[in-house]
């Protein structure tokens, strides 16, 4: 057990999918896992372990934001020995050619968070995905004909902004979409020498203002889950 997870040692697999929403964790376990067992209920942050195509795999909700998700990612790595961490989240598009329901693979994660100022002072660390996981995920998505974009994303500390147009500066530099966790995940993966990838489905659009419902966010976007699970096959 760790402070925020009440799983026994060994109860969580080396590969863990990480949605922000704990109910998406339950949906993933019930839809994709064989014999899922709930391994966590502390704070309602549900986590499950089962098998997928015969391989052990876990899913753990992380909550919203870098601060919450880094707690779970830290404990998964240091207390449970997790080695392949794949975030599966929703994001808001910054680009007109990145549409609602498209998949985005986050090759890198820019951020407005202070997490890496705390670590590196005025120097700038570039949080990046594991190249092998990224390549596998891209190949799988291509083979299945899923519309997929690969590039730099924004991990923001805030969902609501006083000035919503501030996103345009990031869009001008090619940032594809905004979410709230990947930069923390990639930084911790680098520190601990484990593999990490963030796979996102576009749930809303900052340019066109198109949105999806909360039910759709919780229950759908299964193409992204398939990509994540198949990319992790054979890693353990
Ligand atoms: O759908 P999830 O994984 O929660 O991800 C996105 O959705 C939340 C905001 O609504 C933030 O956590 C953001 O990163
Ligand atoms: O962080 C997020 C997630 C989804 N959509 C957004 O606009 N921001």
TrEMBL record:
EC number: 2.4.2.3
Nucleoside phosphorylase domain span: 16-228
Coiled coil: none
InterPro entries: DeoD-type, Nucleoside_phosphorylase_d, Nucleoside_phosphorylase_sf
Sample GO molecular function, one term: purine-nucleoside phosphorylase activity
Signal peptide span: none
Pfam families noted in UniProt: PNP_UDP_1
Reactions this protein catalyses: uridine + phosphate = alpha-D-ribose 1-phosphate + uracil
Assigned keywords, A-Z: Glycosyltransferase, Transferase
Superkingdom to which the source organism belongs: Bacteria
PANTHER family noted in UniProt: FI09636P-RELATED, URIDINE PHOSPHORYLASE
Protein name: Uridine phosphorylase
């Amino acid at each position: 057990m760790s402070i925020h997870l009440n799983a026994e040692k060994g109860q969580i697999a080396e590969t863990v999918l990480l949605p922000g929403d704990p109910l998406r964790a339950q949906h993933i376990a019930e839809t994709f896992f064989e014999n899922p067992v709930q391994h966590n209920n502390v704070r309602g942050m549900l986590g499950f372990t089962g098998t997928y195509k015969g391989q052990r795999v876990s899913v753990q909700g992380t909550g919203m934001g870098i601060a919450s998700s880094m707690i779970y990612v830290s404990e998964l790595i240091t207390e449970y020995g997790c080695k392949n961490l794949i975030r599966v989240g929703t994001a808001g598009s910054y680009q007109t050619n990145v549409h609602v329901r498209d998949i985005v693979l986050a090759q890198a994660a820019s951020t407005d968070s202070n997490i890496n100022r705390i670590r590196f002072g005025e120097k700038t660390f570039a949080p990046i995905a594991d190249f092998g996981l990224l390549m596998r995920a891209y190949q799988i998505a291509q083979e299945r004909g899923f519309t997929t974009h690969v590039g730099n994303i924004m991990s923001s500390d805030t969902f609501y902004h006083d000035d919503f147009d501030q996103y345009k500066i990031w869009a001008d530099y090619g940032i594809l979409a905004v979410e709230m966790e990947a930069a923390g995940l990639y930084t911790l993966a680098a520190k601990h020498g484990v593999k990490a990838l963030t796979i996102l489905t576009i749930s809303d659009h900052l340019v066109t203002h198109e949105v999806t419902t909360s039910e759709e966010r919780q229950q759908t976007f299964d193409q992204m889950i398939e990509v994540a699970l198949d990319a992790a096959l054979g890693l353990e």
